[in-house]
Specification:
The protein is an alpha/beta fold and about 200 residues long. The protein has a single domain, classed as Rossmann fold. The chain has 9 helices and 5 strands. Strands 2-1-3-4-5 form a 5-stranded parallel beta sheet, with helices on both faces. Helix 3 packs across helix 4, helix 4 runs antiparallel to helix 5 and helix 8 packs across helix 9. The chain is globular, with a radius of gyration of 16 Å.
């Protein structure tokens, strides 16, 4: 089995967690790739950038022009899947406070991830945290990409219980891993993923 980890930022916390998780998976014989797609939302805010850790290999850097090229190429090569992804992206945007432009970026990043996953024969994508990476992983899956899962923190879960985008990501995910100090969070996620 080949699992891809998807992150958008390498904070000190997520860097340590990802390194530990990747190491444990590799030790058990699972092939692991780590992809980092930096959202264009963060390119507007230089303070949001953290340096890439040198010990985590990531996919190639993607420019805005290249993102739009992947979006157009996928539309040409997979028009039905692209249209389904486009409709899902619009549905997510309608229920979001984020801009339509940002949702197009998610979709373009999903096209890049779809291509990377196919080239590397990835069986499953795990997005580290329920923000941008899980949106990209979900849209990649809608395009016909591999199954996905994601990790959230307990506070993230509580803050997003009424967010339709978050609920959609939970519903479509193969599983959601909750980092929480109490069992209550796990029980809430299990209930949400069943609905």
């Amino acid at each position: 089995m080949h699992i891809a980890y998807l992150v958008t930022q390498h904070s000190n916390v997520s860097r340590t967690e990802v390194k530990d998780q990747l190491y444990n998976l590799e030790e058990s014989g699972i092939e692991v790739s780590n992809y980092s797609i930096y959202s264009l939302q963060n390119e507007c805010d230089e303070s949001a950038h953290s340096p890439k850790p040198s010990d985590l290999e990531t996919g190639p850097t993607i420019s805005q022009t290249s993102l739009m090229g992947h979006l157009a190429t996928t539309a040409f090569k997979r028009p039905i899947a692209w249209y389904k992804c486009y409709r899902r992206m619009l549905g997510l945007w309608v229920n979001s406070s984020s801009s339509l432009y940002l949702h197009f970026v998610y979709m373009a990043e999903a096209c890049v991830l779809f291509n990377w996953a196919n080239q590397n024969q990835v069986d499953h994508i795990h997005a580290h945290f329920g923000t941008d990476p899980s949106s990209v992983a979900m849209l990649c899956h809608v395009l016909g990409g591999p199954t996905y899962s994601f990790t959230i923190r307990g506070s993230e879960k509580v803050e997003n219980l009424s967010d339709p985008l978050w609920l959609e990501k939970v519903k479509r995910a193969k599983f959601v891993a909750v980092i929480d100090e109490t069992d209550t969070g796990d029980q809430q996620i299990q209930l949400l993923s069943v609905k």
